Amino acid sequence: MLTATKDLMLPATVTGSWPRPRWYDGGLWGRPLDTALLDVHFREQFLDAHSTVIADQERAGLDILTNGDYHLDEDFAGRSWHHYPLQRWKGLEHEELQYERSRDRLLEFPAGTLMNEIESTWRWPRVVGKVEHDPRNPLEYAKLWRIAQARAGSGKPVKFGTCSSQVLSIFLDSHTAEYDLEDKKQLIWDMAGAMNLELRQLAAAGAKVIQIEEPTIHFVACFYPDQTELLDFLVNAFNHEVEGLDDVELWIHTCWGNPNMQKVYTGESYANSIEIYLERLKGDVWTVEATENQLAEIDLFKPYAGRLKKKIAVGMVNHRTLQADMAPVVAARVRRALEVIPADKLILSTDCGFGRQGFTRTIAFYKTTAIAQARNIVLKELGLEERYVPAADPSLQVDVLPDQEPLTHLPSPWK
To answer: Over 90: is that where the pLDDT of 213 sits?
Structure first.
C-alpha cells in the first residue's frame, strides 16, 4: 500500500547504505544489538552515527530517508549485508571458505582481480540444521528503525531495507539432512519465513517503508531463462517473505551487484524479468539500476506506461563512479525516464547503495543532493512546487565570500 509516496510527485531517495563517519569504527560482529548497546562507548558511536546519517540526508533534500545500514559491520567489500541475518539465525554455524562447487559459475573470477579477492576472502556459515528465527538473538529490525526514525527531525519517513533470503542461499552449503545439497528451495523457503517474522514486527512498530533487496529473480531470468520452475518458486518465496505487510509501502530493490562498488556481471538485462516484477510480485515500488548503462533499458517500460501497478524507482546516479553528478545532468536523466514512465509513477533514487566499502561520505552526499536538486528542476518545468534543499541554500554554505561579511573581514580591493 502506498503510504510515504502516495501523493508525492518525483520523490527523491537513495537505496540504503551510506559511508560511515571516520569516527564510527565500532561494530556488532554477531553480537545481539541489546548486548552491544550496553557498551557505553559503542552506544554513543552507534546512536550518534544514526543522527549523522539522517542529518546528511535531510540536508541533501531527500524525501525518503534511510538509516545508512549503520547496523552492518564495516567489513571487507560489504559482506555484512549478507551476514547480519546469517549470524543471528538458528541452524547456521562456523564461517569458512567455500568449496569449489559451492559458488555459481557466474561468480568465478581469475586470480589477480579484486572480485577474486572478494569471493575468496568472504567466509560463509555451514547449514547444520533447520534455519529459523532465534528469539535469543533477533535481527531487531524494529528497534533499528525506531533509532533512525526518532532522529529524523523533519518527520520524513525512514525506509528500512534488508537483503532477501533468496540471495543468501546462493552462498550456503547444506551439511544436514534437513536440506538437499543441490536443491535449495526448502532452505530459501525457511529463511523467507524467518525473515518474515522480523519484517512483520518492523511493520507493527510503525515503519511506513520497507525494502527487500535483491531477490534473485532478475539474475535467474537473465542468465538461466529456461529455469521456469525455479522462477515460479522464487516468485512464491518472495511473496511468502513479505506476507502480512499489506499496510506498509513495500519496495523491491534490484541491481547487478555492489561488493566494494564493483560490477559483478556482464550481459545483464531486466528484459526477461520486467513482467515478473511488475505483475507477479507483491509490492508497491520496484527499484532498478539504470544510470550504469545510461538508461539503455528504460524503454522496457514503454508497454506498461499506461498500466503500471507499481511505482518505479530509477537509479539516477551510479554507485560505482566517484564523479559527483551535477544537478542538470541528473535532471536530463529524469526527463529521459519521464518519456516512458508517468511522473506520478516515477521515484528518483540511486543505482545501489554507497556504503559497501570504497565510497567517501562527501561524494555520496553530493551525488545525493544532486538528485534532490534535479527533482526541483523538473518539478519547476512541470509547473509544480519545488521542495527545499538545505544543501543548495546559498545562505547556509560553510564558507561565503568576504564581501558578504564586511563587518568581520578585510574590505575588497575592488571597492
So the answer is: yes
Whether 269 contacts 300, CB under 8 Å: no
Cell numbers that stand for 358 in this block: 570504497
330 within 8 A of 294, measured Cβ to Cβ: no
Amino acid code (one letter) for 165: S
> CB under 8 Å to 399, separation ≥6 — which residues?
none
Burial class (CB in 10 A: 0-12, 13-18, 19+), 280: middle
Asked whether 168 and 125 are in contact (CB, 8 A), the reply is no
User: What sign does the dihedral 32-30-207-196 (CA atoms) show?
Assistant: negative
Q: pLDDT per residue over 13-42, tens digit each?
A: 999 999 999 999 999 999 999 999 999 999
Distance between CA 118 and CA 81 in Å, rounded?
A: 14
What are the two backbone dihedrals, phi and then psi, of residue 128, each rounded to the nearest 5 degrees?
Answer: -120, 0
* Cα separation values, 1 from 22, 199, 345, Å: 38, 15, 14
